[in-house]
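fyi for ur records
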Amino acid sequence: MQEAFSPAVYILASKRNDMLYAGVTSKLPARVHQHRHSTVRGGLPANMACSSSWFEQHATMEAAIAREKRTKKWNRAWKLS
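which gave:
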């Protein structure tokens, strides 16, 4: 497994209203913490409990961003499985 601070694509799922959020970061644990504590602009709405449903690490940020763009085109069923 790659280092925890390598570029990663992730999908978070809200527990309350069934929202999905896909993003990319180089510091996944810190980013998930930010989402859970509503400190990310443009992410999940404030006070919305979320869980990590999927992540994938990459060697470069460019590769992670390209994968994120493809991930956002997936249909909902793929994102949840």
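The chain has three helices and three strands. thats all i got for now
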